[in-house]
Amino acid sequence: MAGKKQFDVDVALDAAMIQFWRSGYADTSLDDLSAATGLNRSSIYSSLGDKDALYLRCLDRYATRYGDRYDQALASAAEDPLRAMRGFFDVTLQRIADPDVPDGCMVAQTTMAIPALSGAIAARAIDALASQQARLRNALIATKLTAGDVDEFAVHFVAVNQSLAVMSRAGANQRQLRTIVGISLNAFSRALSHRS
Q1: What are the chain's domains?
Q2: Taking each helix axis from N to C terminus, what angle separates 30-37 and 51-74, rounded to the nearest 10 degrees?
Q3: Residue 74: which pLDDT band, with cuts at 50, 70 and 90?
Q4: Spatial separation of the C-alpha atoms in residues 61 and 55, rounded to whole Å
Q5: How confident is the model at residue 1 (pLDDT cuts 50, 70, 90)?
Q6: Are 106 and 59 a contacting pair, CB within 8 Å?
Q7: Which residues bind DNA (predicted)?
Q8: Rounded to whole angstroms, what are the CA distances from 155 to 95, 112, 130, 152, 158?
Q9: pLDDT digits over 134-167, tens only?
Q10: Distances (CA, A) of 168 to 11, 51, 52, 109, 172
Q11: pLDDT score of 8 more than 90
Q12: Rounded distance between C-alpha atoms, residue 196 and residue 189, angstroms
């Protein structure tokens, strides 16, 4: 049928997301995106948008995909806070160990490149980090920790989670990454044992 798209938009977006995630915004050319998606430049522009628009769509897709997994892990925070936080970090560690996706985190990679990015992309990366902090804060409120502890652990867990992505790109192995998580979870466990 004339005018009908001959490709699956979700498949193309996933391929573009992986390309951006692997190489970053600056080091991904339209030729790279064309090779990754199987689309010519014209089809990319007409169906997926220019490079900035496509990157924003991919960043949103990434944040939603992993955000949903984090939400599932944190759902049990009121009943078993330590298990919930372990599950939160397991989402990241499983992503890092997945051979089908690049090392690291697309949000962390984007955040580190903020000085070279457009204002819209920089704002979206900052929003993604703020959303993760809000997600953690909401889960931690259910633990009955003090408001100060809730805020401090939310910031700390976001920082640790992003550092896991950076460390994995630098070659840290799963044992080392799990040690980083373990130290944070031990501190969290101690705080839980002292709650009123």
Answers
A1: 62-193 (1.10.357.10)
A2: 60
A3: very high
A4: 10
A5: very low
A6: yes
A7: 29-48
A8: 21, 17, 9, 5, 5
A9: 999 999 999 989 999 999 999 999 999 999 999 9
A10: 26, 27, 26, 12, 5
A11: no
A12: 14
Taking residue 172's Cβ as centre, other Cβ atoms within 10 Å add up to 17
Residue pair 177/167 in contact (Cβ under 8 Å)? The answer is yes
Contact status, residue 27 vs residue 92, Cβ threshold 8 Å:
no
User: CB-hemisphere CA count at 13 Å for 186?
Assistant: 6
Three-state helix/strand/coil letters over the chain: CCCCCCCCHHHHHHHHHHHHHHHCCCCCCHHHHHHHHCCCHHHHHHHHCCHHHHHHHHHHHHHHHHHHHHHHHHCCCCCCHHHHHHHHHHHHHHHHHCCCCCCCCHHHHHHHCHHHCCHHHHHHHHHHHHHHHHHHHHHHHCCCCCHHHHHHHHHHHHHHHHHHHHHHHCCCCHHHHHHHHHHHHHHHHHHHHCCC
Residue 79 is encoded by which pair of tokens?
């009943």
